[in-house]
Amino acid sequence: MDLQQVKDRVYYRLREDLISQEIPPGAPLKEIPLSERFGVSKTPIREALARLESDGLVEIAPYRGARAKWYTARDFDQLYEARFVIQAECLQRITENPTSPVAEELRLNVLRSKELLAAEKYDDLVAEIDRFDDILFSAIDNDVLREVIDRIATHFRRIGKHTMTEARFVSSVNEHDQIVKAARDGNQKRARDRLLKHSDHTKSDLLAMLQSGQAS
């Protein structure tokens, strides 16, 4: 394994641990223990932490070192706004062509989600709900926007660890259903309104859980 492969291995493993919160928010990320864990020198660790800081997953402070970053209220506002703006553009393209393969894939996604919800197969349902966004984003074929989408999706994978309750499962499936029905009807205004309500509801649910101490 060459040096670049070593650096990438360390980066992607730490990135996944941060997203899954195996490394919890606020946890210190010290170079020596990480070097021992991965069996590498401090250089790949230092470079991985710098990349993760650029990703917005790690914060590095002088004399204090690196730690797993969490989100401020402003971070949440910006992430939800950015996701909504891009999703709204995707949705507009779908409503302009409501018989497109993407529209059909969204319909099938909602159908599968309803079946999984009824069967109380929540682990599979989480994956299907997450896939809704992936399908929606696929309406855009733009490499520059794809990089932005991937960055946003990374943060929402992490945030999603705190938003999935049984009540949110039900709400998400119903809201996705309403979004898709409006899009397949070609009703841009209603589809956008349903999308905005869904975004606002998921954000409100997350903030309520954080404030009540159910998430940290």
TrEMBL record:
Question: Which InterPro entries does the record associate with it?
Answer: GntR_C, TF_FadR/GntR_C, Tscrpt_reg_HTH_GntR, WH-like_DNA-bd_sf, WH_DNA-bd_sf
CDD domains for the chain: WHTH_GntR
Q: Which PROSITE patterns match?
A: HTH_GNTR
> Kinase: present as a keyword of the record?
no
List keywords of the entry alphabetically.
DNA-binding, Transcription, Transcription regulation
Q: Where is the HTH gntR-type domain?
A: 4-71
Q: What is the superkingdom listed in this entry's lineage?
A: Bacteria
List, alphabetically, the Gene3D superfamilies matched. Answer: GntR ligand-binding domain-like, Winged helix-like DNA-binding domain superfamily/Winged helix DNA-binding domain
Protein name (record) = GntR family transcriptional regulator
